[in-house]
Amino acid sequence: MTPEFKFDFGRGARIGLDEAVFCEGKTVDQISAIVDAVKAKTGRLLLTRLDQSKYEPLFARHGAQLEFDPLSRTAILGQPHDALLMPPVAIVMAGTSDLPVGREAARTLAFAGQTCCEYADIGVAGLWRLLERIDEIRSSPVVIVAAGMDAALVSVVGGLVSSAVIALPTSVGYGVALGGATALHAALASCAPGILTVNIDNGYGAACAALRILRVMATLPKRSV
Amino acid sequence: MTPEFKFDFGRGARIGLDEAVFCEGKTVDQISAIVDAVKAKTGRLLLTRLDQSKYEPLFARHGAQLEFDPLSRTAILGQPHDALLMPPVAIVMAGTSDLPVGREAARTLAFAGQTCCEYADIGVAGLWRLLERIDEIRSSPVVIVAAGMDAALVSVVGGLVSSAVIALPTSVGYGVALGGATALHAALASCAPGILTVNIDNGYGAACAALRILRVMATLPKRSV
Amino acid sequence: MTPEFKFDFGRGARIGLDEAVFCEGKTVDQISAIVDAVKAKTGRLLLTRLDQSKYEPLFARHGAQLEFDPLSRTAILGQPHDALLMPPVAIVMAGTSDLPVGREAARTLAFAGQTCCEYADIGVAGLWRLLERIDEIRSSPVVIVAAGMDAALVSVVGGLVSSAVIALPTSVGYGVALGGATALHAALASCAPGILTVNIDNGYGAACAALRILRVMATLPKRSV
Amino acid sequence: MTPEFKFDFGRGARIGLDEAVFCEGKTVDQISAIVDAVKAKTGRLLLTRLDQSKYEPLFARHGAQLEFDPLSRTAILGQPHDALLMPPVAIVMAGTSDLPVGREAARTLAFAGQTCCEYADIGVAGLWRLLERIDEIRSSPVVIVAAGMDAALVSVVGGLVSSAVIALPTSVGYGVALGGATALHAALASCAPGILTVNIDNGYGAACAALRILRVMATLPKRSV
Amino acid sequence: MTPEFKFDFGRGARIGLDEAVFCEGKTVDQISAIVDAVKAKTGRLLLTRLDQSKYEPLFARHGAQLEFDPLSRTAILGQPHDALLMPPVAIVMAGTSDLPVGREAARTLAFAGQTCCEYADIGVAGLWRLLERIDEIRSSPVVIVAAGMDAALVSVVGGLVSSAVIALPTSVGYGVALGGATALHAALASCAPGILTVNIDNGYGAACAALRILRVMATLPKRSV
Amino acid sequence: MTPEFKFDFGRGARIGLDEAVFCEGKTVDQISAIVDAVKAKTGRLLLTRLDQSKYEPLFARHGAQLEFDPLSRTAILGQPHDALLMPPVAIVMAGTSDLPVGREAARTLAFAGQTCCEYADIGVAGLWRLLERIDEIRSSPVVIVAAGMDAALVSVVGGLVSSAVIALPTSVGYGVALGGATALHAALASCAPGILTVNIDNGYGAACAALRILRVMATLPKRSV
Amino acid sequence: MTPEFKFDFGRGARIGLDEAVFCEGKTVDQISAIVDAVKAKTGRLLLTRLDQSKYEPLFARHGAQLEFDPLSRTAILGQPHDALLMPPVAIVMAGTSDLPVGREAARTLAFAGQTCCEYADIGVAGLWRLLERIDEIRSSPVVIVAAGMDAALVSVVGGLVSSAVIALPTSVGYGVALGGATALHAALASCAPGILTVNIDNGYGAACAALRILRVMATLPKRSV
Amino acid sequence: MTPEFKFDFGRGARIGLDEAVFCEGKTVDQISAIVDAVKAKTGRLLLTRLDQSKYEPLFARHGAQLEFDPLSRTAILGQPHDALLMPPVAIVMAGTSDLPVGREAARTLAFAGQTCCEYADIGVAGLWRLLERIDEIRSSPVVIVAAGMDAALVSVVGGLVSSAVIALPTSVGYGVALGGATALHAALASCAPGILTVNIDNGYGAACAALRILRVMATLPKRSV
């Protein structure tokens, strides 16, 4: 039988983003084998979608080297990357239920050495909550907007800031929220121009996209508009 | 062969709303026969989804008795109902392309003797356009919000006014706007509580719902909250 | 890390509807923290989609102040609002399985001080059950119709009453009932004019919409039709 | 190249239903060749979905032997089958726009020698129209109910008659009527038990199903219930 | 609070089919209350979708009066109806996994006093299994075909018999079997004319439809074709 | 501005299949430019989805070098490839309306030097039509089955032959035939094992797949089973 | 009651593929009865989708005669078929999570006496992993590509090899991966010509299709291209 | 009647992107009125989705001030903005049919003063076409990938470059390409991390997103990674 995985150690060098381990659908043994392989090589790894029930046997084997966050279901092996020294990313979240997804983005940024500011529970049903923070949000070069249901927050933010805006649709909601598809479609069909989108609940992907933008920014010549 | 229609002349008495003629999928001859039947009875009829190309032969037969509006594709036979004497309905529209649908609602209200105010092209991509009119909108007992694409305007209005809010999703947009389904789903999954919805592009239905609300209001005892 | 919630205490003043807590997807700790915050401020809160298994630890912390109804999975903290003094809302339900959703609407109205009458298990497969209650139903200014499967009850009621009619599609049924989507689509495409709709299983939303209508009614001048 | 068709002349003997020609997607030449083949054999043929624009060149070739009905877009070659001598089928139609589909069923029955009664424009938005004809409808052994949009008529009829009920969903409606899918799903998920369904707009199929039922009835021993 | 159910005792007289209890989504207490009400009236009841785990507490209360079949998840209270004295219905099943659904139809027929013959595991992947039984199947006035996945069996049977054919799509299969939707759509779009369809997994409905057909047959005059 | 195309002249050498030109969505000028480029290089090209209206101006420019077939909407520039000397592919078609798609496959095979046999209009509604040709079909190493609607023919053929079977779902049908999706899903969920599928109406792709199979066969050592 | 299964012992002779037992939705007793029937006849059987929890009681009854593989959830009764003596099939897998599905294909091939080579975790996000193995893959007459999410690997392989390519879409992924539908659709709409597809997660079917191709190859005359 | 539009002249100052006119669904008169309003104010406007048939009467009124490009269906009024002085954006297109959408992005960038490089017809079916240009593409800070059908090009590019990658799914393809939904879903579910997506065929939106990224880059401090 063939070996079950082939870790892409060159990904960081190639595209500036380390390969992370998506733990859903993998057994504890498979995850542990990858952790062992990484320990023997770079010693640094991000694990996403890691349930508490899988974390516990992994902790028994790898101990405190794995730093676990139950809300976002992420674990970090080893030290994060050196600080990127770019302005913080804003992570704007519509409701309390969007926190796990937004936090996955925050943890992915932290692993990569990038700071962020979280703005929780400021959906448009109470527009004042957004408006009183908008100047602060506007100062971030990249704004991630995590929202489920109708995702109206995405369009409102998109119409108020000139930064790069990444919609992060979440599966929050029921009925015609359609497991996040309505939020996704609303973001893609936004009336505000130039909104970008990632897959439903893909906090990891939203952060990776932000990192692509920030890394490329860091290497370009400054110019005043 | 059986007669092709059976007009519901009792509908007005029964539910307070006259039967209207939905012209899509009907031939000019069928429509004309209904007009003749109504002329012989009440003399008053609303026709919706009437294309210019069908209006012309109808005009040749029924002349100026049919008052036609090409933007909303509606025609009115005879005099509108007596004025309802209720405060005007607000019809808030996200973009220029939502005008035909919003105007269908306006014409249906006018036929029933109800006034309205139209607020066109005030989508959330330019939030200031809405905010500078919001106090005026708030004073209407019923607010119809016509929007396509992401329909974010519905949730923003719903979070700012205490009136009855009727979302009127439109088929404006392309791709994942899905012919209005995304706007419809976003309205139904709105983060603002107590939003009501009608079918895509159903300006007639939104107006009928407003009339149900206003008629029942008119017969209830006043009370201060 | 940021605080996890930002309760919208001003919502009642702004749109006439208190913010309620949707408990699905929230942990007991998150819910309990909100209850504590509300206790310290207004002392009055509606909780929806609260499972028995979450209610029990909450009861251990907050005791009899939380009045729980297992059928509708709602809890009420503190005293309901003062009575609205409007005629009762009719809640018409097609079958026994629609009761939990209809009851969520009833509880939301009760929390807001509004009375209602429930009519259970009167679907159109036995039309006589509806017809013998229709005069009573007709006298309500707002009629909520909770139905799953084909939701034919919505159109039949809509053709018989002149009140405001709010369709409340439920996820009752299997196969092409599609988790409530068929009921929702049937309500939106109803042959009866002026029907309004909320999201699938959204008893809370249907009640909020009824409250918007009744509140605005209460402040308008009386007029005879 | 191979011959383009292989007419199933044995179908009538095998299952009691002649093969008919579905003309959509066939060229005038293909249809004409089939007509020629049938003329040379049985001389009797039903053509469905035949547009006026295709009928005209066919008429030029085959003349008055083809009896054409523009409303149902059907043509009949030769004489219908001998009368079946069974009670008439009831064809109940919700609205004027359902007539073409209902008429296709009527024409298919007529071709097979079976009588029917059509009940047009008696949808549930005006329930009295149905109730005043229900005793007559109830006396038919097979009732076909043609309805689009929400198809509520199907369930209401199904709850009032003990006959075999065949739902014939039509593509009438717009938006979430979804080209007839909502009517189809509502019929399949009907709260009335024992409803049977055919494809959207399939008047021909509904009639064939009625014929299967009536033919088998005709050969069974009588028994009192 | 309102009573939770309103049993339709007149349904048998009205449409020839007793109301049955669909147990999914009902609590044991609700079901038991209905059983008590029926015991006090007619003493005869069919229960469908009754899980073993719900049956056990019901058995504790109502004992051997409830005759339970675990495969079809049905229970029968009291004696079945008198024998209908019509030829048996054929229930043709594509695979072993279709048995529970086919058996639900068989039990519903048995409750109504109607006999049937079951033909299990004769899908078209082994066409010989069908062909060696086809003459026997052909002799039934009504043929129910239970099939999931591609439901090809429906069209093959429909092309070989002249009886009334009721497709009973099942949720057997995975991936694009789409929980039975592919079988349903294939049956509705069948190339064999005059096929009728019920909802996915609706064995009860297929049997009710067969009973409608057989009851009406029983009251019609005999005639030779 | 960049050049608009970059023809893949190496594809034949790389994967054994020439690049063909899919003409839908291309202008006559774009197609003509590709034809010119090919003329200057290999002189041999297959064009698919070429409407008569586009063919005519192309004929005016390139004349008899383009051999056009209106039924399949294909044109061939230059001489077909040398004969492959493999047994003919069987192309089995359910109905007359499946001919254009089946013929596209036949033309693609012919262009590649591969023979085929077409079997038209032998759907399972008249099973005898298939059974009388099945021995002949069985002798082909690759069988392409073109069918729309329920695509039951795919499963029946798949259960009768041991050859490689390629389902070619067509968009023939209406309503829940869903533009070919039902045929596609039925083929993928077939009860016969080992059926392979291509996209809806993709006669070109089915033929390319057959060529991949036959080419690789031609280079393998013979062995008796 | 009827016997519950009718095993198709002739399938191997008829189409070259033994009937296998799909264990999902079957009880342990049903599976055990089939195993008993096969033991009494051919003694050789493949079981798929067999959960560990069902395997254990089967092992208790049938012991070591059932060889079980937990990763692919397959069991084999008795000895595999004699070796086919054809070159190995390549099974290319995009990620670790695609292994169970790919392994089901491998086990099905092994049961039939066919060898294969597995290439795990070589998705296009790290294209070098594929490119360093492509020459080896290219030498297989049949290449199975198992991939979920976007299934981009299918098109890349299809553009690099001339072999028969069978896409095996998997349900790996979340959100708009849609349980494998996106991978399936991407494979069917591939820009590489001549790709063939099976149902989502259908490793058994992909292997059966490969066997159909290889068996027919084995009986054809050799020819050089 | 209300004025029909309310141009958002402040949008450029607010979010760095001028409001553009989406001409689909607008009449020539409406478009012309907007052009007049802009002429009177800023004199500079981008028009998208402008059909030739609408352009002609506009040209008659506004003459050479409107510079029209028929391939992308865009027109530009007045002079583009001053050059942004950032490195060019790469626009990578899979096939010839993706050109109109890619060109819409190019024109939007040009209007904003931003340069770009187009790479046409380099889909993965001929991977060499991409690989020979990849170093050049890699040097762009933002890469837009326009692809329809399976959109495999998006993942391949995403795995090879570290720049910001914007997927621009197009509606190119048929059948299960689903009007671009398969390309969209494949891009969102990409196995390459950090891919961002816009709506189907939304070349304008992809360019706006690129401008947001580049503008914010231009104002940030340089830093080496």
From TrEMBL, chains A, B, C, D, E, F, G, H:
<dbReference type="InterPro" id="IPR000031">
    <property type="entry name" value="PurE_dom"/>
</dbReference>
<protein>
    <submittedName>
        <fullName>Nickel pincer cofactor biosynthesis protein LarB</fullName>
    </submittedName>
</protein>
<dbReference type="GO" id="GO:0016787">
    <property type="term" value="F:hydrolase activity"/>
</dbReference>
<dbReference type="InterPro" id="IPR039476">
    <property type="entry name" value="P2CMN_synthase_LarB"/>
</dbReference>
<feature type="domain" description="PurE">
    <location>
        <begin position="87"/>
        <end position="219"/>
    </location>
</feature>
<dbReference type="Pfam" id="PF00731">
    <property type="entry name" value="AIRC"/>
</dbReference>
<dbReference type="GO" id="GO:0006189">
    <property type="term" value="P:'de novo' IMP biosynthetic process"/>
</dbReference>
